[in-house]
Design a protein that fits this description.
Blueprint (H helix, E strand, L loop, with lengths): L17 E8 L13 E8 L2 E5 L2 E5 L4 E4 L5 E5 L6 E8 L1 H7 L20 E2 L3 H17 L7 H21 L9
Antiparallel strand pairs: 1-7, 2-5, 2-7, 3-4, 3-6, 5-8
Amino acid sequence: MRQAHRFDPRQEMGREDFELQYKRDTYLQDVELHHHDFHEIYFLISGDVTYTIESRQYHVMPGDLLLISPQELHQICIRPDMVAYERFVLWVDPQLINRISTPLSDLTKHLGANQVKHSNLLRLKPEESEHVRTLFEQLWQESENEKYGADLLRQSLLVQLLVSINRLASNPGEEIAEV
């Protein structure tokens, strides 16, 4: 797998469609409460993390997904320990999601905060987590690739990831209690 990014305090995309970051840190300074104009999809690989989204706090476990809608205020709190804080962070422009959605498959359907009993946290079963992680890793591998068809593979992998996340969010398992 390609080299992880170090923590970058910027909170805006460097591209106009989507940006995937794979980060691995052993120390991280506090992150201010902030929001974005894009969707943020966060997948924790390792670390001890609490996320505040709006007024809700979630203790995030390895293999969990966080779905953060545009304009939702959020902030992370990392407990320093011996385990590296490792994660994938995907930022996606809502206009891109609308363009790749179809009349039968609205890819924003389960990403938004406008759902009844909305929870930002998806606690995945091990096999679901492995599937999502594999998609993130494949997208990460293609994210800087300039070979023929890389743009199509990136978009295809993004669609696969968004479809998978929407399917998981449409049928959440256990109710996740806030911290």
